[in-house]
Design a protein that fits this description.
about 150 residues, alpha+beta, Jelly Rolls, six-stranded antiparallel sheet, globular
Length: about 150
């Protein structure tokens, strides 16, 4: 894929759509388009948080680890960010993320991602919206689990 094709691909991503061509070219040069097959791991729990992934094609599973074993806690699809929370908070990965079927994802170094959101308010606002949606989703999941726990007590 040449640089013009990569820029066209990036321009179709809602989070990046408002960036000018020069910024999209820079992002294309500094990021990697990665391909994963079903079951392949993008990153594992407790890994260092050195990059952020933007799902371009397919779905990824966010795996939770409990004493009873691993299970899929949530599935993220096209245009979803994964790995951004650990990069922003400068912590280790809190979950394992693996491909569910074929996945194409744009991999950005953490420092590039942080520079992208600090210098582009529209991108930062989109990231905040995604984080807010994830927080609301986690709250609903916790409420449902708590209700089930009360039923079995």
């Amino acid at each position: 894929m040449d640089i013009h094709q990569e820029v066209d691909l990036l321009r179709k991503i809602p989070m990046l759509a408002r960036l000018d061509t020069s910024k999209l070219k820079l992002l294309a040069f500094t990021s990697r388009l990665m391909h994963y097959e079903d079951g392949e791991v993008l990153f594992s729990i407790n890994d260092p948080a050195d990059s952020v992934y933007l799902v371009i094609e397919g779905e990824v599973e966010i795996m939770a680890t409990t004493k009873a074993g691993d299970f899929t806690s949530v599935v993220r699809g096209v245009n979803s960010l994964v790995g951004e929370m650990a990069v922003i908070s400068k912590s280790r990965r809190s979950a394992t993320v693996r491909a569910s079927g074929h996945v194409a994802a744009l991999c950005m170094e953490g420092s590039i991602f942080l520079q992208l959101i600090t210098s582009n308010p529209d991108v930062a606002l989109d990231v905040l919206r995604q984080l807010s949606d994830k927080l609301v989703e986690a709250h609903h999941t916790n409420e449902a689990l708590y209700s089930q726990l009360e039923l079995h007590s």
